[in-house]
C-alpha cells in the first residue's frame, strides 16, 4: 500500500500531497475482520488488494485521521462501499484493479446491494471510470498540517443481471 501511494500518486499530486495522503488512506482492518477484503497474489506475493464494506465508512485506514463509522448499512437504501484499493506499482495497468473491482461488486451484489460508492484518488479515476463509475462530488481531505489532498466520491448502480 505504501508503495502504491508513494509511486502511483506522483503524476497527480505534489510531494506534500503524496506525504499527506498517508494520513487519509490505508487499510481499515475492519474489512479483514468482516471478510470483505481481497488480495491478488502472483507466485505467492501480493500484487493487489481491495475490498467492499457493508458499513458506513467511505474511506480511511486504521492509522488515518479520517473518522470511521462502523454502523451497518441497509442494502435496500444504502450503497455498499468499495474500500482500500491498491495495486503494486510493478503490476499496475494489467487488469488487477479491474479483477478486484469485479470481486467487490459481485460480493456486494450477492449481499443485496444495488449500488456502490467509493472515494477515488486522482490516480484511481481512470480505473473507476473504466469500471462504470461516475463522479458524484470532488472534495479535499486535509492533513494535520493543513495540506489538502483532492479526492473524488464516485458511484455506480450495479447490474442486477450479472450472475453472482
From TrEMBL:
Transmembrane residue ranges: none
InterPro entries on file: Acyl_CoA_acyltransferase, Bact_Acetyltransf, GNAT_dom
A Pfam family this chain is assigned to: Acetyltransf_1
Domain N-acetyltransferase: 1-159
Molecular functions (GO terms): acyltransferase activity, transferring groups other than amino-acyl groups
Keyword annotations of the record: Acyltransferase, Transferase
Name of the protein in question: Acetyltransferase
Protein's organism: Novosphingobium fuchskuhlense
Amino acid at each position: 500500500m505504501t508503495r502504491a501511494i508513494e509511486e502511483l500518486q506522483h503524476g497527480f499530486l505534489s510531494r506534500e500531497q503524496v506525504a499527506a495522503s498517508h494520513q487519509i488512506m490505508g487499510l481499515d482492518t475492519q474489512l479483514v475482520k468482516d471478510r470483505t477484503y481481497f488480495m491478488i497474489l502472483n507466485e505467492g506475493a501480493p500484487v493487489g488488494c481491495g475490498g467492499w464494506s457493508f458499513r458506513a465508512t467511505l474511506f480511511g485506514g486504521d492509522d488515518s485521521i479520517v473518522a470511521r463509522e462502523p454502523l451497518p448499512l441497509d442494502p435496500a437504501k444504502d450503497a455498499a462501499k468499495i474500500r482500500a484499493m491498491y495495486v503494486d506499482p510493478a503490476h499496475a495497468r494489467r487488469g488487477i484493479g479491474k479483477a478486484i473491482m469485479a470481486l467487490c461488486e459481485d460480493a456486494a451484489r450477492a449481499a443485496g446491494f444495488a449500488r456502490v460508492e467509493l472515494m477515488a484518488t486522482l490516480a484511481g479515476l481512470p480505473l473507476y471510470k473504466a469500471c462504470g463509475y461516475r463522479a458524484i462530488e470532488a472534495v479535499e481531505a486535509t492533513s494535520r498540517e493543513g495540506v489538502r489532498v483532492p479526492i473524488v466520491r464516485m458511484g455506480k448502480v450495479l447490474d442486477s443481471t450479472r450472475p453472482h
